[in-house]
Amino acid sequence: MQKLPIADAHCDFVYYMVTDGWNIKKPVPRQAVALPYMQEANAKLVFFAAWIDGDMKRNCLQQAMDLLDGYHTMMDANPDFVPLTKDFDPNGDKIATVLTVEGGEGINGEAANLRLFHRLGVRAMNLTWNFTNELASPAMRKANKGLTDRGREIVREMNRLGMAVDVSHLSDAGIDELLTLSERPIFASHSNMRSVCDQKRCLKDEHVKAIAEMGGVVGINYYPNHLSDRGTACIDDIVRHIAYGAELVGPEHICLGSDFDGMTHYPEDLKTWRDVPNLLDALRKAGFSEEEVKKIAYQNLYDYIIQFC
Question: What are the tens digits of pLDDT across the range 271-281?
Answer without folding.
Answer: 999 999 999 99
